[in-house]
Amino acid sequence: MDFLRSVGLEELPEQQTKMMHLMEQHPEEEFNLQLGFDACCTCGTPFQPSSTVVDCPSCQRVSYCSEACRQQDAASEEAEEETETAMGHSSIICTLLRLCNNDEAVNEEVQDDEKTKTLLEQDPRAKESAIDRVRSEYESYPATIANVLLQGPLYGPAIQKAAKHLVIHIIGASSDGELWKKTPCMKNDDVWSAYAEALSELAETQRLDTIELHFIGPECPQTNIHETRPMKTVEGGTVGILVAHTHLGSYNTKLLQQHEITKADIVVFHNPGFTCPEYRWVETLRSVPKGTHFLLTTNTEMEGIADCQFLLDNDLLQTVPPNLADMFGSDLLSNTNHDGNNDDDNNNKGGPFFNENPFSGNRVRQSGTMGNDVFVKNHWMLGGVLDSQTKQPPNKRRATDSSRGSVAAAGRARDKSKASNPALI
């Protein structure tokens, strides 16, 4: 991501180590504090109504119980160089969080941040940069679907089987994400035309007459939408038709039958959070026919690993990506593709994949649970085939406790370039 390199980062720092450290310090407590928000970001002391709270004077997005804790957290930058995991409020983290203020202000996510809005009006270049970052996040949804399906060999059999009419279900879609609202940054952009433009090359390359998108989720628009847009070549000629539908409700067999939704050739999940306790995904996933190809994006590497673990535990994956084989067990790594062809050259052509997403946006966001933790939406992607046929009993396939908490165990396929990305080779 060129933007991160411009501020001195090759990748986003991980902050989970600090949370794990505090949990070890307080094993007797159910540790569910939001560090830097309702508890001190350094020592974890919960804030009380009478507490004196000290904010970072620069970004004003991370809070502490004392000035000493604030300085200790800010002074951790040198220590980070000796560890694999970032540990504090470094100058780079503070810079990224200040940009979060700008991005929220231009997108009117913080209505009362008049100081930031005034500064942006005085600095047109900073304002334009913030708008570009916000736009890139929204545009990453159609860009990811279009480019990964076009360039990823895994999806070739599903697209070929669909013949002239490809059907994609985007499950868990929302008006704040895949179906972006008319925000100040996107008020002149038609979401349907954006999908049509992004998918036009796929339609042309695969000779598709129609690409049919069904956006389904409890956070879709209250009134179901049905739209049609032409997909055009660079020269302006029409190569096919995009048909888009939204459906308000949870994805399950009943909803699919009620709305007579066409069976999916490919299903897509953007940041599903399979392991979040408040979400219920099993019924939804069981509603997807066996053998359906899927594409999943997550904000962080650890979330992607957790989602892969969830699919394994629920007997919905038969094999795992090669770079996760050490974590989940090499017996789950198959050299046979789903189209029946052997893949002896070990580059996983057409097989499951887990890697960074080269089509994610440039907007960096702040975590809501850890003040120093930052992420990019759709930054990681997982792809494969949902299959209820398992090779091993679930208890043979679970990652060890130590590997679950270790990002390094994933193999760290860090190069986001298209040429070296296993998902796109």
| Model regions low in confidence, pLDDT < 50 over at least 5 residues | 335-347, 389-415
The percentage of residues in β strands lies in 15-25%
Shape: globular
Level of helix content?
A: 25-40%
How many individual helices? 14
Mean pLDDT: 82
Tally the beta strands: 12
- Give the assembly state of these chains: single chain
SSE pattern: HHEEHHHHHHEHEEEHEHEHHEEEEH
Q: What Rg do the Cα atoms give? A: 22 Å
Going by helix content, strand content and strand pairing, the class is alpha/beta
| Integer count of domains | 2
The termini sit apart by 19 Å
Write the layout of secondary structure elements.
Layout: H1 2-6, H2 16-25, E1 54-55, E2 63-64, H3 67-74, H4 77-80, H5 91-106, H6 114-122, H7 124-151, H8 156-162, E3 165-171, H9 191-206, E4 210-217, E5 226-232, E6 238-248, H10 253-258, E7 266-270, H11 282-286, E8 292-298, H12 301-313, H13 325-328, E9 353-356, E10 365-366, E11 374-375, E12 380-386, H14 401-404
Parallel strand pairs: 3-4, 3-7, 4-6, 7-8
Antiparallel strand pairs: 1-2, 5-6, 8-12, 9-12, 10-11
Helix pairs in contact: 5-6, 5-7, 7-9
